[in-house]
Specification:
alpha/beta; seven-stranded mixed beta sheet; globular; 18% helix; disordered N terminus
């Protein structure tokens, strides 16, 4: 009678440690809070990847709060790149945009930028730093400039797809402790 209570207690005790062990895979440096991107200009998304994450590629989406929908920016972006240049063309102006780094295959969110604005064509962004290419480390280079146009539309495809990199999509892993707990729970469940 007390066995199911013990199993539930063990799951509640150990599972949260597995869920929160990797709270953030990337820190999105640009766009930062209050950044302005402008239509007709190239803007640079920059990031810092956490150590030991094992993520070699990710997908980038642009989300807007006031309208439901996403702009699919780039797929399979190599995490080793110093930045991703994004040229905006006819993207609706607004102050409620977020850049998302995700694994669209599994639906896993790696990181989300702070809220930023997109200005109409002809206006100049007040923060010139997001319009300047970042310094690349030795051996790094920008592979492509992504051109993004139009309003959010969830039926569109990604504006640019990078070639797959070795190990770009990792299988989900719970680690040794998580797998052991699941195994014990499953074994006890079948015995019960």
């Amino acid at each position: 009678m007390r066995l199911p209570g013990l199993v539930v207690s063990l799951v509640i005790l150990f599972l949260p440690a597995q869920v929160v062990s990797n709270p953030s895979y990337f820190v999105i440096n640009q766009p930062a809070k209050g950044t302005q991107w402008a239509n007709g200009q190239t803007n640079y998304a920059t990031w810092t990847q956490g150590l030991g994450q094992g993520i070699s590629a990710f997908d980038v989406e642009l989300a807007r709060i006031s309208t439901d929908g996403l702009l699919f920016v780039a797929r399979n972006v190599p995490s080793s790149l110093p930045s991703l240049p994004i040229t905006l063309t006819d993207v609706p102006a607004g102050d409620d945009y977020f850049l998302l780094f995700i694994n669209s295959t599994h639906g896993l969110m790696y990181s989300m930028s702070p809220r930023f604005s997109i200005l109409p064509a002809g206006q100049t962004a007040s923060n010139a730093s997001s319009n300047q290419p970042p310094a690349a480390n030795k051996g790094q280079q920008l592979l492509a400039t992504v051109t993004l146009s139009g309003a959010p539309n969830p039926t569109n495809t990604f504006a640019y797809t990078f070639a797959p990199t070795a190990g770009a999509r990792k299988a989900w892993s719970m680690g040794g402790a998580g797998a052991a707990i699941i195994g014990v729970v499953a074994s006890l469940w079948t015995i019960w």
